[in-house]
Structure prediction request, 550 residues.
Amino acid sequence: MISVLVVDDDRDLRETLCEVLRDDGNTVHAANDGAEALALLRGGAPVDVILLDLMMPRMTGWEFRKAQLADAALAGIPVVVMTAAADLDKHPIDAGAVLQKPVELATLLRAVAAARR
Amino acid sequence: VRVDGSDDTTAASDDERADEARSRERLAAFLRAMLPIAVGFESLYIACAFFFRSGALAGGAAAVALYTVAVASARKLLAAGRTVDAAMRTGWALLVMVALGAPFLSFLTAALVIMPIAGVALVLPYAPARALRAYLVAALVVITEVIGLGTFVSSPFAPLPHGFEQAVVTSAAVAAAALTIRLLAVDHRRAERLLLAMRGSLAAAQRANEEKDAFLVGAVHDLRTPLAALFLDVQALSASGSAAGDVQARRLARLGRQAKRLTAVVDRLVDVARITSGGLDVSAERVDLAAVVRHVAAELADEAEAASAPLAVSAPSAAVVHGDPVRVGHVVTNLVSNALKFGRGAAVDLEVREGANATTELVVADRGIGVPPEERERIFDRFARGAAVRSYPGLGLGLWITRELAQAMNASIAVTSTPGGGATFVVRFRRAS
Prediction:
């Protein structure tokens, strides 16, 4: 069982992601943006993998990743990026895996499981 | 392989170079001829001034002396390759000479009138547009003064024979006309070339635009077809009640919402195509703005809940305005969606109220990130965005479409804002009595 933190500002997509991850036997936490995710993690939520959207208000995925890597207690948590951004070559993100939206359910579950290992 | 356009461009620039060489040659010929003429006039004036002991003729001599020196120095400038400087100096010197000599040389009025025109013909190929405009204005002033003063100030000589003056005037008029025609011919050739080049790029742009429109039509079709199937399936599933349990029902509701969102994006693209091709059809009917606002608020309740931003509607029971019922709805929807997107999850106020000058105002106010003063005009531009795309992704078309729709209905739109304190959009519709 993996504990996944889902960070996405689209409510419907966030809910869907949580449901499919839960159905796959994981525990799930959810955050609306980078700032909320950071607060959750610093509040001590036990998270094994972060599933991270990039383009979000308040704190973007890029900003979140930077803050996460700067925090020694959080830097080790693996990140799977899932994004609809079309210009990652211009704005690269330092993450274990990067998935383009839309994503197949099997691919998503595989990527989350692989990140944990 | 040669591209069509490149041929024209090369030919045009070759022509331009030839033109410039020709006008440089004309300037050189002009300066070569003018120096001895100017020196000759100078000697004549000095001799006459000395012989008649006339202060007036001495003034004329000073004017011609100035021109002689200017022509000599222009020749030096031309030899040094500074063609534009040479042309400008000669042109201005002509003007100054005419201005200085004018009060003393009434009998030469007509001959002098042509000089500014000759100066323009000379300067035209080189002068930057602003200098040329200044020169033309100066020439006009000088010509007016020369004619005016020539009429009122009497010649220091006894009047010349009538026929002589007429001959001078006639030849001056002919010379002036010839110079003007020549000047226009030079300009005409240039204008024609410019026009040809412009027509070429216009045709290319039109072709590209048509291709883009065709692409959009195809893309929209390919997007709408699967959406239609998706919608029908979702609705059929919901209606049949075959969605077993809460989870299925929830997923189905989400499916419906997302399909609606996709449809809205497609509709937006269609609007863009219509607006840019000028095919936006807007009817002029009586629309109850208050009812539209209430309807939109109900439609967007889901979206508002997702943004955890309550919608507060304040509208009279009816407020009839001139507009297109569907398009008024789009305007309200776009502004509310915009407020929800940038509103940072705080309440959004919708108000319908009476405005000045027989208008009815739609007010959409959020408490979000706001619009900095320098962005307040720009946010209504196509593809413009007031906020960082990485934080607020989107097409950058919503407010542009909204303004275009409003304007098509003779309504105006404006925004006021305190950065960080939210934005208030006001649309003023024409009130229907």
In short: Helices of chain A lie at 11-23, 34-42, 61-70, 105-116. Chain A touches chain B through 15 residues (CB under 8 Å). Chain A has four helices and five strands.
